Amino acid sequence: MKKRLNIGCRIDWRKKSEGWICNDILPFKFLIEATKYKYGDVIDFNDIDYKKFDLLKLPYPFKDNIFDEVLAKGILEYFSDEKLMIILRELHRILKLGGIITIQTPHVSNYNAFIEPGQISYYSVNKFNFLYTPYFGFLGMFERPKIKLTWKNERYNKGYKKLIARLVNKIINISPPRMERYLAPLIGGLEEIWYELKVKK
């Protein structure tokens, strides 16, 4: 079974029986109550492996090269670029060769990215270009990222709106750099951007 880590999970729980460890800086009891308040008593917390630790306090409580996958969903936008680099280096340490970091954040063209309390970093298709320059010490650590743009999340739309969202989402991913530059301003911006970073050793 693959070993997986979900950082900054809040109440986005992933199951221990599927290889997941969930992390956040908040107490487990608080997150359990928050989950029950929003969703009711629907999560089996006996199947949750929770590790409370600060992503900026190194080292993380794991050995080198033990994870196959790390999920960072809706968390990295709350860190400055300098702190992002600290986190990426530590994730590289605990990931195996060929391991994957999956990152999801609001896209820079999403106006909510500028009104969300605490959000201080903004993401576009070129966000991780610094990994492939000689100036920051990341050369040879990651392959070029796979990128996926989302105009509208299909899960939150129904009927013809869902069909339109699906069509536009396919079109904008034909060439994310060009679509981000030329099409995004014409369609009211993009909701999300996803990255898949593959580890090299």
Keywords:
Rossmann fold; single chain; alpha/beta; 7-stranded mixed β-sheet; 201 residues
Your description of this structure?
This protein has 201 residues and is of the alpha/beta class. Helix content is 26%, strand content 21%. The chain has a domain of 104 residues: Rossmann fold (3-Layer(aba) Sandwich), CATH 3.40.50.150. A seven-stranded mixed β-sheet has the order 3-2-1-4-5-7-6. Strand 2, helix 1 and strand 3 form a beta-alpha-beta unit. The longest helix is centred in the middle third of the chain and has 14 residues. The mean pLDDT is 96.
What is the CATH T-level topology of the domain at 54-149 and 191-198?
Answer: Rossmann fold
Order of helices and strands: EEHEEHEHEHHE
Q: Can you tell me the CATH class of the domain at 54-149 and 191-198?
A: Alpha Beta
Kindly estimate the percentage of residues that lie in beta strands according to DSSP.
Answer: 15-25%
Helical percent range?
25-40%
What's the rounded overall pLDDT mean? 96
Quickly give the structural class.
alpha/beta
The H-level CATH homologous superfamily of the domain at 54-149 and 191-198, spelled out, is Vaccinia Virus protein VP39
Shape field? globular
